[in-house]
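dude i think i finally got it to work??
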Amino acid sequence: MELNRRILFTGLVIAIILSDSIIFLATDKSRDFYSNWIININSAIAAALAIFIVFRQKFHTLHGKAHAALAIGLSLWLCAEIIWAMYEIVWQIVAPVPSVADYLWLSAYGFLAYYLFATYKEFNKKFRFSKKVLIASIIGGVIFVTYIIGLTTSLSVLSTPRSIAMFSVMIAYPTMDAILMVPAIVILLDIRKEPLWFTPWICESLGLLLIVLSDSWFTLVVLTSLTEQFWLSSLFFAAHFLVMAAGLVWYIKYLTLHHYEQQPQHQHKMTNSDTRLHNGNSNMIVPPPAVSEKRKKRIPIGTITCMVLILFAGFVVYSIYPIIFSFGNANIEVIPAPASSKHTVTLGALLSLSGASASLGESEEAGLKIALRDVNESFKKTNTNLGVGLILEDTHTNPAFGIEELKDLASKGIRIVIGPSTSAELEAIKDYANNNGIILLSPSSTAPLLATPGDNIFRLVPDDTHQAEAIATQMRKDGIGVVIPMWRADAYGDRLVNSTKGDFQMLGGT
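look at this
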């Protein structure tokens, strides 16, 4: 058994390294795609194993019902992951708050809580859990939740229905995590001398700990607007499902009813916990119907084969992703020049068609298409042989996407690009544009420090020094003497608040 335990944990470590490496090594532009695929694959493995256990248990027993609840909970999490992936890589929209995925994730906690507390109740009859451990776990959970609520409250601005909904969702996840951690920790610490049961509960508890880390980091990122760091929570989340799956694999191997049926002649090898759980009046272990010897050998092999095939499918998708992307990329729209044009000029456009500045990008897209149509119609009326085409790409209001898409346009020979929409995106790509002879025409970037003489950037709006002066002047006219600023921490927000602060202080404000 010790050898099998080492094999299990070695395989788990290798699987986590492989799956997280795919996310970690991906480019900024493709990381959302890979992280969603990896998490969905890992979640599917865990849910499939939980469902497999249910069909090997007796449903009328408490333990059988507990595992049915676990299977439902993990299945709901899988559905939530699929919906979230649809938001990010198919629909490419910012998820509403709360989203359908949130409802599925949060509803799963009820089933997972039933699983853990039902298991705690059954184990407590046999192992007589320490009340001190239970009390310490509850106190630790309360301290953690109190800290998260305090942190969330201090960083939140509860001025709109959306912000209130965001606040509620942000504290719901850590609170639910803390509730699940209490029975998991108690069970883990009180059965540590029972190696057969201790092994899967190491995985259960570690998996929940990874969820706590993932949700806590996600909350921090949302509250501080560090959206480029979202992917770090994906590392914990992907590992969580693999750790849960490892515990379920061990359970299938050693602790399902089928295992006891297989080895009636080896009861003397059971640990103390096995004997107590197998005998007595407990309804936890009930002899199942007879199973053929052929089926006994095939079930573990089939499970392992399915896991290998799922993992292999993930690597296949990872390998052919660039091909898939090139045929079905909804981020790119190509508008060719009129067919009658003998000479064509193709322009590029980097606009925020999704993400935080989607409304800005959509209006710019509409204006750009009208201008393109008018220019080509004018060329046609004057019998000019020139036509203008356009390759339009969505930056998702994400600077990391912007630089990758500018490189893509450059690889197609485009040297005049309209966009990007925001100052943060422009700041991220301006050096590449200057170094590669690409002219950028930004319709809405206003950060003052991006106004550099002699560069390749042309902006169609005044910078924020004018806006800052107007804001400061209007506040002083309104009798405002003290301002506590709150702003978006990026190239636009930082420079605007600094300019406004300087102008406001010059007018006697604080």
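Residues 277 and 285 are 7 Å apart (CA to CA).
im so relieved honestly
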